């Protein structure tokens, strides 16, 4: 990785990332435009000696499939004139620097982007890593795509050296943008918010069942799906009864159904159908499971299947930060984005910062009863990180921007699930010792009052 230190007189730095602005058709919608403009205006009016750094994925250039080269930039300017004029105005007062991410990787490939962005007072550094100095120590800034096997650029700066993630976006995400408005709820555009990519099939199944399926068909299936777990229990009690092990549960259940008259008959019918289906699925599941394992093994050998829990991904970046800290003792803060999971993590007397995303986020929830698709709760967490020097120390401040939360869930989705718990806390203020106190002094974090994605 190359490192470039841009000349700047700033004493504090604001960081945001992963806005993914732009794309085909429905992907053009920027649901946080008002908040982003307000944030830029606040910086323009401030008297701070600051610099705004967008550490990757400001734009969604991968999501354009019908435009080439600088036509994509022209489309962005035409689609978001107020944003670009505000960038120009803010950039006159506060330096704005951006680095390429994976979704706007083309920024690293063409010098024309440097000139075009400069016209709006935005400085493009075509680097994987940049650094800044605070309190005599170094802040390491990257997007993070080079540490992701699916999105690392094999030859950074080569427009033809695209990772697997590029082709996923070209053929799935962009297509979703073109088709989204045909849906009943214009939901398909949110596919770019679904992480990790392995969640996409489950998310699509959920959206189909709760949004697109014919309502009559959905509510015909609903009682069978809701009583599926009950059917399994009834079948087990039936096996206990016919084997003579324990007959009381099944006899009691039969008596209860008989007392319910017509309702009991309907429930009994649903349970019998479920048991028949369950047995058929069980018979089919054995050969299908063997086949699926073999196919998955083949895909894994070719590197086409990678499943990592969010915690594993976060640990990978923490380990990467530790390597940087070991090689560069002067580095006090490691800043990255890419994973869309905001975090501020003290590590070895230093701090690792994930700048999160301004896109919609999804948290999956299982239904409380029956065998039904997962429900994906949408939310926004617009955030920024400020790093500055205070009394010779490096202070990392995590801030969120208020935004009305989406109301995308159907009544059925709300009835079938419990709302997700509150997010885990992120320290609002984390202090790292400056150069005058030594690199190995501990990190001190205040009581958290902000939250992170779980």
From TrEMBL:
<feature type="domain" description="Calcineurin-like phosphoesterase">
    <location>
        <begin position="14"/>
        <end position="163"/>
    </location>
</feature>
<dbReference type="InterPro" id="IPR029052">
    <property type="entry name" value="Metallo-depent_PP-like"/>
</dbReference>
<protein>
    <submittedName>
        <fullName>Metallophosphoesterase</fullName>
    </submittedName>
</protein>
<dbReference type="GO" id="GO:0046872">
    <property type="term" value="F:metal ion binding"/>
</dbReference>
<keyword id="KW-0812">Transmembrane</keyword>
<keyword id="KW-0479">Metal-binding</keyword>
<feature type="transmembrane region" description="Helical">
    <location>
        <begin position="216"/>
        <end position="246"/>
    </location>
</feature>
<feature type="transmembrane region" description="Helical">
    <location>
        <begin position="258"/>
        <end position="291"/>
    </location>
</feature>
<dbReference type="InterPro" id="IPR043461">
    <property type="entry name" value="LpxH-like"/>
</dbReference>
<dbReference type="InterPro" id="IPR004843">
    <property type="entry name" value="Calcineurin-like_PHP"/>
</dbReference>
<keyword id="KW-1003">Cell membrane</keyword>
<dbReference type="Pfam" id="PF00149">
    <property type="entry name" value="Metallophos"/>
</dbReference>
<feature type="region of interest" description="Disordered">
    <location>
        <begin position="429"/>
        <end position="454"/>
    </location>
</feature>
<keyword id="KW-0997">Cell inner membrane</keyword>
<keyword id="KW-0472">Membrane</keyword>
<keyword id="KW-0464">Manganese</keyword>
<keyword id="KW-1133">Transmembrane helix</keyword>
């Amino acid at each position: 990785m190359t490192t470039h230190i841009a000349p700047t007189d700033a004493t504090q730095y604001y960081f945001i990332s992963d806005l993914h602005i732009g794309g085909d058709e429905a992907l053009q919608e920027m649901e946080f435009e008002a908040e982003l403009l307000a944030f830029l205006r606040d910086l323009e009016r401030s008297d701070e000696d600051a610099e705004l750094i967008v550490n990757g994925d400001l734009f969604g250039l991968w999501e354009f499939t019908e435009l080439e080269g600088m036509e994509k930039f022209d489309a962005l300017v035409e689609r978001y004139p107020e944003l670009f004029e505000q960038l120009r105005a803010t950039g006159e007062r506060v330096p704005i620097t951006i680095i390429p991410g994976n979704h706007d990787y083309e920024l690293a490939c063409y010098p024309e982007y440097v000139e075009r962005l400069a016209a709006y007072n935005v400085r493009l550094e075509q680097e994987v890593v940049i650094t800044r100095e605070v309190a005599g120590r170094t802040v390491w800034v990257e997007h993070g795509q080079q540490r992701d096997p699916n999105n690392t650029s094999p030859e950074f700066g080569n427009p033809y050296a695209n990772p697997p993630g590029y082709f996923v976006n070209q053929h799935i995400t962009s297509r979703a943008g073109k088709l989204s408005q045909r849906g009943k709820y214009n939901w398909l555009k949110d596919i770019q918010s679904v992480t990790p990519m392995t969640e996409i099939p489950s998310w699509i199944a959920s959206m189909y069942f709760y949004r697109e399926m014919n309502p009559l068909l959905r509510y015909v299936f609903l009682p069978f799906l809701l009583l599926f777990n009950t059917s399994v229990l009834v079948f087990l009690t039936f096996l206990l009864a016919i084997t003579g092990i324990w007959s009381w549960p099944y006899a009691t259940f039969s008596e209860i159904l008989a007392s319910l008259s017509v309702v009991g008959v309907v429930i009994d019918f649903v349970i019998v159908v479920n048991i028949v289906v369950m047995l058929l699925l069980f018979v089919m599941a054995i050969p299908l499971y063997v086949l699926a394992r073999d196919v998955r093994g083949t895909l894994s050998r070719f590197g086409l299947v990678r499943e990592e829990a969010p915690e594993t991904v976060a640990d990978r970046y923490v380990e990467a930060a530790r390597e940087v800290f070991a090689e560069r003792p002067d580095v006090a803060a490691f800043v990255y984005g890419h994973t869309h999971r905001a975090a501020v993590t003290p590590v070895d007397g230093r701090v690792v910062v994930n700048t999160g995303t301004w896109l919609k986020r999804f948290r999956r929830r299982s239904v409380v009863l029956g065998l039904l698709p997962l429900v994906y709760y949408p939310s926004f967490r617009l955030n920024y990180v400020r790093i500055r020097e205070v009394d010779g120390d490096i202070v990392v401040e995590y801030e969120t921007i208020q935004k009305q939360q989406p109301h995308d869930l159907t009544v059925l989705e709300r009835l079938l699930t419990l709302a997700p718990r509150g997010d885990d806390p992120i320290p609002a203020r984390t202090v790292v010792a400056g150069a005058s106190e030594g690199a190995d002094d501990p990190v001190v974090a205040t009581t958290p009052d902000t939250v992170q994605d779980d």
